[in-house]
Amino acid sequence: MNLVSIRIITSDVARLVTFYERVTDVRAEWASDDFAELRTPTATLAIASTRTVPLFAPGSASPAENRSVITEFLVDDVDRVHQNLSGFVTDLVTGPTTMPWGNRSLLFRDPDGNLVNFFTPVTPAAVEKFAR
Which pTM value belongs to this model? Predict the structure, then answer.
């Protein structure tokens, strides 16, 4: 089994896609006005409209209500990314901070309030973990 994507349900697909394209520097691939994907070498971030929810099960997902999931992106230099996003990301939770597990992390919220973590491994053990 492989985890291949995370899907965010939103009431404004274009706004969220524009945000993620800017922060990740990845161009979205649009399947329809209600669905787009930002593909990276290891996983995909899918962004879908609330209009897609009934296709799975009516009422099974709601936009802008996540308080438990953090979407994480491995980046080469989190401090440089922080500088590049200064003035664009308006809901910064924590500036670049080295975590006890060896990653330097930048935590912010997307326009729907979802937590996003950009991180760079900085300790030898963390670097080795992500070099595989």
Answer: 0.94
83-111 confidence digits (pLDDT tens)? 999 999 999 999 999 999 999 999 999 99
Please state, in angstroms and rounded to a whole number, the distance separating the CA atoms of residues 74 and 121: 8
Cα angle 8, 118, 76 (rounded to 5 degrees) comes to 130
Pairing of strands 29-32, 5-10: unpaired
**Residue range of the domain that includes 5:** 1-54
- Selection from 69, 111, 109, 125 nearest residue 61 by Cα: 69
Cα separation, 97 vs 105, in Å, equals 5
Q: Look at the alpha carbons of 20, 21, 25, 27 in this order and tell me if their dihedral is positive or negative.
A: positive
- The domain spanning residue 7 has which CATH number? 3.30.720.120
